[in-house]
Amino acid sequence: MTSTVTSQKTQRLTVTRSPTSRHRRSERRLRPEVLLALVAGGWAVATAAHLLGADLLLPPLVLIVTASLLRAGRTLLDRLMLALFLLLGTACGAGLLLSVWPWGLAPVPVAGVALTVLAVLGTVSGRRPALPRPAIADVVTVAATAAVAAYLAMPYLRANLAGRIALAMAGEDLTRHVTVFDGIRQVGGYLFLHDGQARRYVYSGMIRYPQGFHFVSALLDGYLPHHDSSGVTAFNHLIGFHVAGYALMTLSILWGARWIGGRLLATAWRWLPVVVLLSALCVKGELTADFVDGYPSEIAGLALVAGLIAVLARPVAGRRTQLLLVGSLLVALGFTYYLFLPGMGLAAVVWLVLRRRRLPHPAFTAAVALSTGVLALLPLSLGVLGGGQTESLKTAAAFHNSRAALIALALLVAAGVFGPTGRCPVVWRLYRWSAVSLLGYVLLLGAYQKVTTGHTGYYFEKSLHGAQVVLLVGLGSLVTLLPAPVRRAHRSRLAMALPSLLVAAAIGAGLGLVRGDSPYRPIAGSADGNWGTAWQSHRLAPTRLGVMAADLVARYREHPGSGVTLLLGDDAYANYSVSLFAAALERNAGTPISRGFYIGHLPGASNEAVRAMILRIGVPIVAVVTSPRIATLIRDLQRTNPRQHIELIDLSGAKA
Prior knowledge:
Elements: H1 2-10, H2 32-51, H3 58-69, H4 76-98, H5 107-125, H6 136-158, H7 161-168, H8 173-187, H9 195-198, H10 212-221, H11 231-261, H12 268-284, H13 288-293, H14 296-313, H15 319-336, H16 341-354, H17 362-386, H18 403-417, H19 426-453, H20 458-473, H21 493-510, H22 531-536, H23 543-556, E1 564-568, H24 572-585, H25 591-597, H26 607-617, E2 621-625, H27 628-640, E3 646-650
Helix pairs in contact: 2-5, 3-4, 3-5, 4-15, 6-11, 6-12, 7-23, 8-10, 8-11, 8-24, 11-12, 11-14, 11-20, 12-21, 14-15, 14-16, 14-19, 14-20, 15-16, 15-17, 16-19, 18-20, 19-20, 23-24, 25-26
């Protein structure tokens, strides 16, 4: 009985209050001359870093300064994660201004303005920079995230250009994400604000695609060193951001589970089995398929879902800070992957209703709610009204997530949330409402697809990933079934650590981290059994296509008179994937080549299909041909359609 009462007390929301918040009134306000000095210092630091080639230090500086002005979170990782969520939403919203101001994404003006805003906020609030100490559990969390990122990045790091292209071709979508990222860098902002320029770099269907991940990546890319300005360098950098995005998703899931768990997960030994379980699922389970198939926007959206669920379940102590956090996460989600926005928006509305008596002043609440709604819904409105993306909800699914695994996960979370200890605390009550909001939205989406198409589709399977992340964050509820942690002076460190180490080792072995022969096999019918092992084995990478694309870029990128370079052979999919990837690396993936390949289905390799595709493209073409039949066709087109300037590079061995 005593342990249950103690456990409930540890779950109260007051645990999120920073020890320094009680001294807020005693903090001295800065004088105007100090503010001017801080602003000047911020611009001086940004300028000096640029002149010294140390731009890379500016984004971490902005993050640390932001974290130092917050007064929420018990540990350093808490503070940094909350600051990161605020900055992501701010960057997505501010991108509307950065896309049209004269300096584009130039690093010095952006960093200078960011540091100026932080100086003003610090002065107005009277807060001096202060950071809490890191906890051992913080180190465990960051180390686990780094291990996941290193594991998934290793195949890219070991490969040459052809190998990296092949790995990226494991999923077709990454080609288009390369063009959006590089297009934003080239035009200096969101593509939908530079429609005319954007059509050179991307096909029209991506101009109104949600670009939050791509914009933030392009913004940060300006602070990275570039040995050249080629499309290949842009591709390499996007791969880095793709890995970083998955690391952020993993970190958000781990941090969110620990944040909601509160003091029941505050000790490193209690946290270790949970972090091993979550990390193993992130590197071996179905979420890894998003990384393999190249869905960086969805991955970033899942990171935001995890963060939003966490702060809705356990709000921070500052009411205004909490409202700004929820608003920033919703804005970032709307700009990044708005498939999850209706469900998480509903969760936020439910939270507002449940916490209506603990909200800030009505005027402040209304202003934040209005600006959040306008900004978060803007990309959705552009996609639905201007991009015709409603029809994509009916797209059939090429894969299906395991329903059994999701049900098992839901039952585990329910055991903790609805158990005798988890039923009462406010944290788990708020988590239940947030989880039910998203899960209800997922079920409604599936029902809509069933009614309209007779089956669940591609985006329903995507929405199940959101449900999975919400449940993974809730796995911390299982500790409510354990006795409350009690310190006993007579117990040795080994006695305290041994049970945790054994449980963590058992989880790792069961999920294949030791021998790789786990009974958990989310890839049915595969020799690898799970996505992480399959990724490491390179079995998912079309090596032949990667070599062909790299060769196409290396040999024919600077070919005189080239307009669009095409690979044309007897394999229709090779023609499609290699030509589009080469065009992305050549920064020529816009309207002309899009007219040829994006026709609602895979263009065929017959003479009639190839002829029609070339005529649709309508601009000069360098045709790299590997089929004697198509070589004959190209020579015929050169005679009958001389105005298009079709250049033939015959690798088929056919005689003229």
